[in-house]
């Protein structure tokens, strides 16, 4: 293990100055080697080692983590964010994971990007707001990373960085110990190179996890045709059709179902709810430290201050209506999973934007579990991904079905 960690630290020394996925930490190598040696002494017998023994973990810098400051990508005093360690971090540590680093986040998990670059092309965004977590896994710095999704901050950066990203059902993973964005929407999720690592970590983090037996029955997949899907770029849609053809050739049943045609209403309701709750979170901090907020974050908070209580109530009620409609339709049509592009296209050039959340908002808004699976590359060579979505509280089945789906799609990578 010590040789492995030294090798990872060498890789970080070589690549991190360009990628900038991790928060700086003097003495990181020495700390990790000491923690690894301690772990080896605690578990000398391989048969008794915990499931994540020695796995390196990246943690988005909105999670409180013992031994690390929490800055949330902001210029505010980190003492404001002090508190007990997030239980999600504690659970992974108890399972044997070693904290590699805090990873870069957009300011307060919103729209102001950090310095992180896409490991596949340094001139392109890695996505946001969990940018550092996705880039750290893609760069080979860690095998597992924690992030959060309020709009699209797990699925989109996973897609842009060519890795797997899992956003579980809203509420399946406790969100204590994080700096919230919008409590009605915030969901802790995971990044990894493969589905097996995500499944292992999810089984440790998700409340009331139920082991699911393997079976040979292929899920019925449905394409959500209509105005939602047309938000993707022409190139993304062309590639998506190729992905669908590969899945059909592999034996999957595909249906095209008109749905989410009120997508503009949904998007507006989501924005009102998210910005109103963001403004509530920052009410006291913003009153004191407004000058330290970056422009887009400040603008979103001010917009949220203008959203009335009645609008918030309507947005929460509409969320339940849309989720019920989607899941009822799935039941009526015999649909197991929705399948759609994970992002509107490949990672955009430049670092001033983290990309478009349009493909992710319905599933974040309704709280349904979603997974990004790498699926080939765009004309410019950057990764693309397919997103699969299941009914709420069926995370176990989603991950079970994901592995064979990923194998089909990986043939296009």
From TrEMBL:
Q: Which domain of life is it from?
A: Bacteria
Q: Which residues form a coiled coil?
A: none
InterPro entries, sorted: Amidase, Amidase_dom, AS_sf
Q: Which residues form the Amidase domain?
A: 6-399
The portions of this protein that span the membrane are none
Among Pfam families, the record links this protein to: Amidase (PF01425)
Q: Where is this region: Disordered?
A: 109-129
Query: What SUPFAM superfamilies does this protein's entry cite?
Result: Amidase signature (AS) enzymes
State the name under which the record lists this protein.
Answer: Amidase
């Amino acid at each position: 293990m010590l040789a492995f960690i030294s090798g990872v630290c060498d890789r970080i020394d070589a690549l991190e100055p360009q990628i900038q996925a991790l928060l700086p930490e003097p003495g990181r190598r020495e700390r990790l080697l000491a923690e690894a040696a301690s772990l080896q002494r605690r578990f000398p017998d391989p048969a008794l080692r915990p499931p994540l023994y020695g796995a390196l973990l990246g943690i988005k810098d909105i999670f409180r983590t013992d031994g690390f400051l929490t800055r949330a990508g902001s210029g505010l005093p980190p003492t404001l964010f002090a508190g007990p360690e997030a239980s999600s971090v504690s659970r992974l540590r108890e399972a044997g994971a070693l904290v590699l680093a805090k990873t870069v986040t957009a300011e307060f998990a919103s729209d102001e990007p950090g310095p992180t670059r896409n490991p596949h092309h340094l001139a392109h965004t890695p996505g946001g707001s969990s940018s550092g977590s996705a880039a750290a896994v893609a760069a080979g710095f860690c095998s597992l990373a924690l992030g959060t999704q309020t709009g699209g901050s797990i699925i989109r950066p996973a897609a842009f960085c060519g890795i797997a990203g899992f956003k579980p059902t809203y509420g399946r993973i406790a969100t204590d110990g994080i700096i919230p964005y919008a409590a009605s929407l915030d969901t802790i999720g995971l990044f990894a190179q493969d589905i097996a690592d995500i499944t292992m970590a999810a089984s440790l983090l998700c409340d009331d996890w139920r082991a699911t037996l393997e079976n040979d029955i292929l899920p019925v997949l449905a394409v959500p045709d209509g105005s939602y899907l047309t938000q993707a770029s022409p190139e993304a849609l062309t590639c998506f059709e190729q992905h669908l053809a590969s899945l059909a050739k592999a034996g999957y049943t595909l249906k095209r179902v008109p749905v989410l045609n009120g997508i503009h209403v949904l998007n507006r309701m989501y924005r009102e709810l998210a910005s109103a709750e963001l403004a509530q979170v920052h009410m006291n901090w913003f009153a004191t430290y407004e000058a330290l907020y970056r422009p887009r974050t400040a603008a979103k908070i001010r917009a949220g201050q203008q959203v009335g209580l009645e609008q918030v109530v309507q947005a929460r009620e509409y969320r339940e209506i849309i989720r019920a409609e989607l899941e009822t339709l799935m039941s009526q049509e015999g649909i197991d999973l929705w399948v759609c592009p994970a992002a509107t296209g490949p990672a955009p050039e430049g670092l001033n934007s983290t990309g478009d959340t349009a493909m992710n908002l319905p599933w974040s808004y309704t709280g349904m579990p979603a997974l990004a699976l790498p699926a080939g590359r765009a004309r410019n060579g950057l990764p693309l991904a397919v997103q699969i979505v299941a009914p709420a509280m069926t995370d176990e089945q989603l991950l079970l079905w994901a592995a064979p789906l990923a194998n089909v799609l990986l043939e296009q990578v």
